[in-house]
Specification:
The chain is mostly beta strands and about 475 residues long. It has a single domain, classed as Methanol Dehydrogenase, Chain A, CATH 2.140.10. Helix content is about 5%, strand content about 45%. The protein is built from four helices and 35 strands. Strands 2, 30, 31, 32, 33 and 34 form a six-stranded antiparallel sheet that branches. A five-stranded antiparallel sheet has the order 1-7-6-3-35, with no helix packed on it. Strand 24 and strand 25 form a beta hairpin. Bound molecules: cobalt (II) ion (CO). Cobalt (II) ion binds next to strand 22.
Length: about 475
């Protein structure tokens, strides 16, 4: 038997790397028309995106794009038209560095201040760069960064109101996750469920539930043994599901000015991660169950199935990190672990866990219809590589049937690179896949960003808007209906 050689990658590295740049403009309500197709008149609301918008200062590049300052892009849809706005979050660090035109803070992912280890040693301040996610809560837009409190912004103008303690819920500097989950109404009205982690030899998770108006409805704290590295979680009607990866944290390099704090994380080979399952009611003991080997940043969804809890996550073989001497724009995709969608079934009575591969293709940023959050979903949408095997940048959107494994793909290759897809249900829809998928696409040919609207069911292109804006490869975002 002969094995066909894997197809060559379908992209040019220069196109991919061209998205790493500083955002030089802030647009204030630019009206857009579709370059192709037409904006659906029933699509009404605002797509918010967050991600690093400043990657270089005074000739020095960040060590990793995750160290870039948060910039919000907003696209407001109404009446078949769209309006574009973008604005940096006016964090304390951003303002000071804009004036100084150089890095004044170290980055968690390895960016150092000028002057080498001597200038960086013992400077243990963290710069809240507000670059990871953006969500609507009450009359605020929250720019999130998991190690500290959120920044509140005006949802219309994107003007920064300042750091927010959420009406006294948080203490100054308290960790507040960048991955809230939106319960569509398992306990009556919709809620935002989120958490904060205080990590140490014993770690504490604070689980919080808010009304959509921003009122705190539930609040509980749970301690576990081990240094917690928790970026995301999942919810069901009754459980908050965390996956604690088997990682060790040795801060010596950070303290001595040689590494960023996140670079001091390393995987513990041979050791297993743990599922930490916390009852949302606040009553009953949390469960701790050994997890399959591997590393997880993001979960797709979770649901309850009799005595089993089912969790779908994007698994990596190992912790994907960029070493201190590597330029992130030169990273060799073939040598870093690829993400794959995996389903774990956890038996809550026996603690047995089974693992099933749902999608072999490299993927990230997966989501279900927001109405299926915490329930079994038939369909998922995710960003995938163009090639069916091998690790490459994300260039396509896949719709995956989680029951049959069948899929459809829309591709931006060879010159386009996708970001996290956001599924927006059509108002009044009954079918799970009735709606649109919105995605910012880096267009390597234009060296600018396109806003793509796909039909969520067929993945047919509905419209493409060519933005007068170049948005670097980003992180997370959300859609706020009008
Ligand atoms: Co994330």
């Amino acid at each position: 038997m002969t094995v066909a050689p894997a197809a060559a990658p379908a992209y040019d590295r220069a196109d991919w790397a061209s998205a790493f740049r500083n955002v030089g403009v802030e647009l204030d309500g630019v009206e857009l028309t579709a370059a192709r197709g037409a904006i659906p008149p029933e699509l009404v609301g605002t797509l918010y995106r967050n991600g690093p918008g400043r990657l270089e200062r005074g000739g020095q590049w960040v060590h990793h794009p995750f160290d870039g300052d948060g910039m919000i892009t907003a696209l407001r849809f109404a009446g078949g038209k769209a309006e574009l706005r973008n604005r940096f979050v006016r964090t304390e660090g951003w303002q000071a560095e804009e004036l100084a035109d150089k890095f004044l803070y170290r980055g968690v992912f390895g960016t150092q201040k000028p002057g080498g280890a001597v200038a960086n040693a013992f400077d243990l301040r963290l710069k809240n760069i507000a670059n990871t996610h953006v969500v609507r809560l009450g009359d605020q837009l929250l720019a999130l960064w998991e190690a500290a409190e959120p920044h509140a912004l005006d949802p219309d103008t994107l003007e920064t109101r300042g750091l927010s303690l959420l009406d006294g819920v948080l203490k100054k500097g308290e960790a507040f996750s960048a991955h809230p989950r939106f319960d569509p109404g398992h306990h009556g009205a919709p809620r935002m469920v989120t958490f904060g982690v205080k990590a140490g030899p014993r770690s504490t998770i604070r689980l919080m539930e808010f009304s959509t108006g921003g009122e705190l409805l539930a609040d509980s704290r749970h301690s576990f043994k081990g240094f917690a590295f928790l970026h995301d979680f999942a919810i069901t009607p009754n459980w908050a599901v965390f996956l604690q990866n088997a990682v060790a944290f040795n801060p010596t390099g950070f303290v001595l000015g040689q590494k960023g704090a996140a670079q001091c994380l390393s995987s513990k080979p041979g050791e297993q991660g743990q599922f930490w399952l916390i009852p949302r009611s606040g009553e009953g003991k949390p469960l701790q169950i050994a997890a399959p080997e591997g590393f997880v940043f993001h979960h797709l969804n979770a649901f309850e199935d009799g005595e089993e809890l089912v969790v779908d996550s994007i698994y990596y073989d190992d912790f994907p990190s960029i070493g201190p001497d590597v330029d992130f724009r030169q990273v060799d995709f073939e040598t870093i672990p690829a993400g794959q969608l995996v389903r774990c079934r956890i038996n809550l009575n026996t603690g047995a866990v089974s693992k099933e591969l749902l999608e072999e293709r490299t993927c990230e940023f997966a989501m279900v219809n927001p109405e299926r959050q915490g329930l079994e979903a038939r369909t998922s949408w995710m960003a995938v590589a163009e090639r069916e095997r091998g690790n490459d940048p994300l260039q396509a959107i896949k719709k995956l049937d989680l029951t049959t494994g069948e899929g459809r793909v829309w591709s931006a290759a060879p010159r386009g690179f996708v970001s996290e897809p956001v599924m927006v249900p059509r108002p009044g829809a009954s079918a799970e896949d009735d709606g649109w998928v919105l995605c910012l696409v880096w267009n390597g040919a234009r060296c600018a960003s396109d806003l793509l609207i796909l039909d969520a069911a067929s993945l047919d292109e509905v419209a493409v808007l060519e933005l007068p804006l170049a948005v670097p490869h980003g992180l997370h975002g959300s859609f706020a209906p009008a």
